[in-house]
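Lest this sound abstract, we think one record worth quoting, the chain in one-letter code, the fold tokenised, each line plainly labelled:

>
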Amino acid sequence: MSKKKQDMRFALDILEREARITRVRGEVDPKFELPAVLAQSPNRSAVIFEKVKGYSVPVVGNLVDRENFALTCGIESTIEASLQFIDHGITNPIKPELIKNAPCREIVITENVDVMKTIPVTTFFQKESGPYIMSAIVVAKDPETGNRNVSMNRLLILGPDRLMIGMSPSHHLHRLLEKATVLGKTLEVSIAIGNHPAVLVAANAYVDLGFDEFYIAGGMFGEPLELSPGITVDVEVPAGAEFVIEAEFIPGELHEEGFVSEFHGMYVDYGKSPVLQVKGITHRKDPIFQIILPGRYHEHFIIGAMAIETTTLRHIRAAVPRVKTAYITEGGMGRSHLVTSLSDPRPGEGQKAIFAAFAHCNLIKHVTVVDEDIKVDDPVDVEWAIAARMRAERDIMIIPGVRTDRADALVKEGTVSKVGIIALREPTALPKAEIPHEIMEKVKSEWGRYKVQVGDKNVNRSFSYIK
């Protein structure tokens, strides 16, 4: 079957060529064992499980890593390239197009639907109440405008044709459900599993309600994202998805979820969440099921981080045009800690940048502002800036009682204290002691002629250096 650049399979082919795929050939149980192997797999390559107990469907995890994202999107592996690529999708959106005979519709199941028999769903953590689908994008339409909304939501398997869907009251999907309830309508959804990394990141973009995230994916690809119309619902999905579950909300029905893992790596209890009635499942003839290991694991962090840092940078730039770049740290759970850099900042612009970040995303609660000579994605360089340039009595801002998301680890009555650190160089600061830049660059470009060896092995790459 042909593979288009918008498909997960196209991305996997690229990662295979770049030796970024680890294969697990031994059988694994999808309950706890598969997540345990995934969590301990070497490096950050994608991991393909070829034999999953009880299923003939292989499973892929760790698909989205910053390096993997760059390779599969054809961009440089730098934070600046990632920000520009995703931002281009937002500022240059391309309308999707519908196609017939999509790969995701090769097999259609509308009778005797059984999610657990069809899909190798995974149980991740001990205290959770059952298996979850964690990699799905959920597509719904505004019952008033017809505009699509695309998001990522966890789905707890309740039975052969029933799913609980987790979503915060502040999220767009919840607002669409409220609209449908007021109008006396049933809200339909299409759930697509097995998508290209760019589609997954687009689904996480912090944009206004009514901004179709599929347009963003098209802007990143530089061509319309191909969509397939639904079989049992009037909702479209990416044509290249591996699995599609079509469903509708059961009016008024809620399920007590119990403990569920969050991105901070701890259990939370959100209480009751809505329930979906599954109407049909479609998939490719030889599907691959994609999982995302939730909790405190890097793929869960990265997918959210890349989307949040891009839209936050856009928001900061509206307030502080001198902003250069932004980075959501992995240590900050891929959500909570932001480092942003400014070029030749004027007095007070560090504070404005901090306030703009807090205003844009409720989850951000710690912002560090540095000069543009600091690598925002290098924790050592950032810590150096704090140690060398921050005066604690002047440059630390603590703002209590700021609105946050219910998912924050320390939320209390909907709020949390937020922290801003300004680590900007003073006009009278001591100058950096540096080797001439042109010499550093010359050595970097001519590294091979130095015949550097560690033991009996040549070191055939140049090392990064502080600029």
